[in-house]
């Protein structure tokens, strides 16, 4: 946009008028023959003053025009600035509206996030409670199953122990009969039964030849009796039993110095003593 300038006034007409008035004043002065009176002085002053005014007038007009132009420019700048301020105000208002919209959206997102978090927490609590209930139910079920298995194990263990006791009693009765074939068959049958019981963890506790009395594994027929230290076992009255390393029942034995009844199985002597006896014979 081109910058406007103040219009310039042609000064030559004013110069001509000024010169004309000065010449008129000079003519009046030169034509006075007598005394220079007030009237002549007035007209001379009027011509000179008029010429001076005419000479100064175009400069005053130009100055006034420049002043008006400057004021117009300042007014235009002010209007432009006001327009810019209005545009800025509109932008600020638009930004404020957008910020309010963003704030509303942020509040909505925050509310939605809080609702989602609350829902997740509620579902987590419900899931935890469900797992706890399922865990308790499973524990109770497993506890019941363990109790059932324990009772079942005790039942079949009692059956095995009773069977072994009956087989032991039957073998002892066969030994008392004195029939070698019957004794061999019953001994083999007892060994087979003990082998089957051993496979399920039930082991017969019997003293070895020349083994001394151990109160942790053996007991006497008379529970109040106190055997001597290092007393040797010479007979077995009732077999002991253990299940998977846990002693179920101690073996009832006969030690030296006690009478061995016929129903008691006498323990065989060691190989060294047997060979020595044969040599003496």
Describe what you observe in this structure.
The protein has 281 residues and is of the alpha+beta class. Helix 2 (38-177) runs antiparallel to helix 3. The protein is rod-shaped, with a radius of gyration of 71 Å. It has helices at 12-31, 38-177, 180-199, 271-280; strands at 202-205, 218-220, 233-238, 240-243, 246-249, 251-255, 265-266. The strands form 2 sheets. Strands 2-6-3-7 form a 4-stranded mixed beta sheet. Strands 1-4-5 form a 3-stranded antiparallel beta sheet. The longest helix has 140 residues, at 38-177. 68% of the residues lie in helices and 10% in strands. It has 4 helices and 7 strands, in the order αααβββββββα. Mean pLDDT is 79; it is low at 268-281. It starts with 11 loop residues before the first helix and ends with a helix. Among the domains are: 12-99; 203-268, Nucleotide Exchange Factor Grpe, Chain A, domain 2, CATH 2.30.22.
Which class of secondary structure composition applies to the elements? alpha+beta
Largest sheet: 4 strands, mixed
Calculate Rg over CA atoms.
Answer: 71 Å
The poorly predicted ranges are 268-281
Helix content: 55-70%
């Amino acid at each position: 946009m081109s910058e406007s300038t103040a219009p310039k006034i042609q000064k030559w007409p004013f110069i001509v008028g000024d010169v004309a008035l000065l010449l008129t004043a000079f003519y009046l002065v030169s034509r006075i023959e007598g005394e220079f009176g007030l009237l002549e002085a007035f007209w001379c002053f009027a011509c000179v003053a008029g010429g001076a005014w005419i000479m100064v007038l175009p400069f005053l007009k130009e100055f006034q025009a420049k002043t008006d132009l400057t004021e117009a420019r300042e007014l235009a700048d002010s209007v432009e600035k006001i327009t810019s301020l209005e545009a800025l105000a509109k932008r600020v208002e638009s930004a404020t509206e957008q910020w309010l919209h963003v704030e509303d959206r942020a509040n909505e997102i925050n509310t939605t996030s809080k609702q989602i978090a609350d829902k997740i927490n509620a579902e987590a609590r419900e899931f935890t409670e469900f797992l706890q209930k399922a865990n308790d139910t499973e524990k109770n079920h497993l506890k019941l199953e363990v109790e059932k298995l324990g009772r079942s194990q005790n039942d079949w263990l009692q059956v095995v122990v009773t069977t072994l006791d009956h087989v032991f009693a039957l073998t002892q009765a066969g030994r008392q009969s004195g029939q070698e074939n019957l004794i061999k068959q019953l001994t083999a049958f007892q060994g087979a039964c003990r082998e089957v019981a051993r496979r399920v963890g039930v082991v017969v506790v019997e003293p070895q030849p020349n083994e001394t009395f151990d109160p942790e594994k053996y007991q006497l027929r008379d529970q109040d009796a106190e055997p001597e230290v290092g007393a040797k076992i010479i007979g077995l009255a009732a077999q002991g039993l253990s299940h998977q390393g846990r002693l179920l029942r101690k073996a009832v034995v006969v030690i030296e110095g006690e009478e061995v009844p016929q129903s008691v199985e006498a323990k065989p002597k060691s190989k060294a003593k047997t060979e020595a006896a044969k040599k003496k014979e």
